[in-house]
Amino acid sequence: MAVDLVIFDCDGTLVDSEPISVRVGTAALRRLGWSIDEKEYAERFVGCTNEFWAEQVGETPPGWKEQLDAEYVAAIKAELCVIEGIEEALDRLSIPSCVASNGRHRTIRRSLEITGLAERFAGRVFSAEDVARGKPAPDLFLHAAAAMGAEPERCVVVEDSPFGVMAAVSAGMRCLAYAGGLTPAERLTGLGATHLFHDPAGIPDLIAALD
């Protein structure tokens, strides 16, 4: 079946933000007294919604969240870069595309602006803030497809987290799962992904093979 729309996750798929958020988040939780390392943090929180994260963390001391936000923003501004190969893939992609992320609109916008990707997706960015349930529910991907005028079965999602892959599968969309990032390939297998890949530059070829 032909592909009419490519839906990209943002963090870990377009921009290399996840190592930053894991490092900063782990340090912040350890200040709360959590016994947690970066591997466990990544397994529990990478790809989740802000609401899920807040529920898991629970009550925090005054000023803690503000300090965490400030540390994260500072690190993002200093270190954030594009996932290697993504710009080449976007240059070659002839199919309409958009972004659908569990992040807040302001966070997505900041990441895309810092990395120079904002213009590529102007007016085509969707957030978990737009729907009742974020990933792993299918709502966000279905919302993005409807807004872009595409049928779910004619969409391909590019994801890097178990939450995202599950959401794509639940939405009835084909999913390319990026296994070259922070999430180990074994955590992405068995979730219904159409294909696991390691080189983002080859995304257009993978999509062409689905037609």
Characterise this structure.
By secondary structure, the protein is an alpha/beta fold. The chain has helices at residues 18-31, 38-45, 50-57, 64-79, 86-92, 105-114, 139-148, 162-170, 203-210; strands at residues 5-8, 97-101, 125-127, 155-159, 174-178, 195-197. Strands 3-2-1-4-5-6 form a six-stranded parallel sheet, sandwiched between helices. Helix 1 packs across helix 2 (38-45) and helix 1 (18-31) runs antiparallel to helix 4 (64-79).
Overview in brief:
The chain has 211 residues and is α/β, with parallel strands linked by helices. 43% of the residues lie in helices and 12% in strands. The protein starts with a strand and ends with a helix.
